[in-house]
Amino acid sequence: MLENLKDYNIILASGSPRRKELLAGLGINFETKVLKGIDESYPNNIPAKEVAEYISKQKAAAYKNILNDKDMIITADTVVINGKEILGKPHNKQQASEMLENLSNKTHSVVTGVTILTKEKSISFSTETKVDFAKLSGEEINYYIDNYKPFDKAGAYGIQEWIGYVAVKSISGSYFNVMGLPIQRLYQELKNW
């Protein structure tokens, strides 16, 4: 599959083990490369649902000047949106606890923006998934944070971990998008490259 990509050196520009696992599931050869110090800030006036795609474009732009002719860069960014608030990665246990308390007993959105970049062209897209959380007790939140250390995850949780088993009542959209990469949509874009 994806024979149209055989001449490309595909580079996943992410340190996320979940994104690496999902891309590997497509059966394509790729390497990972992460540049340090990429600006992930965004203007305050853009809608929350556009932030992830904006940041994925920023990440891709950082690789533009080091691309070889046959390189294909794939960047992604995931944000959790609760109401109008964007939840990034928590810096400590208190922030993680506050995020999970705010998600408890509510429905939130997870949006992942993806950019595919070569010397010849670039495309970007984003995918949204709605996630409905059950009510979480303080004990459950503390157990999850203490045992899973979700400090590298937007919204302070990984759907594929214990918290996903006990908190997620339902989802509308791509499960893999919540993990950090809307792999079915990415596959379609790569197939049509």
Question: Outline of this structure?
Answer:
With 193 residues, the chain is of the alpha/beta class. It contains 7 helices and 7 strands.
Kindly describe this structure.
The protein has helices at residues 17-24, 51-63, 93-103, 138-148, 162-167, 175-179, 183-191, and strands spanning 9-12, 31-32, 71-82, 85-87, 107-117, 122-133, 168-172. The protein has 193 residues and is α/β, with parallel strands linked by helices. A hairpin with a 4-residue loop joins strand 5 and strand 6. The model has no long low-confidence stretch (mean pLDDT 96).
Oligomeric nature of the chains: single chain
> Low-confidence parts, pLDDT < 50 over ≥5 residues?
none
Rg is 17 Å
* Structural class by helix and strand composition: alpha/beta
Order of helices and strands: EHEHEEHEEHHEHH
Q: Taking all residues together, what is the mean pLDDT?
A: 96
Q: Would you report the number of β strands?
A: 7
Can you tag this structure with a few keywords?
single chain, 193 residues, alpha/beta
Break the fold down into its secondary structure elements and pairings:
Layout: E1 9-12, H1 17-24, E2 31-32, H2 51-63, E3 71-82, E4 85-87, H3 93-103, E5 107-117, E6 122-133, H4 138-148, H5 162-167, E7 168-172, H6 175-179, H7 183-191
Parallel strand pairs: 1-2, 1-3
Antiparallel strand pairs: 3-4, 3-5, 5-6, 6-7
Helix pairs in contact: 3-4
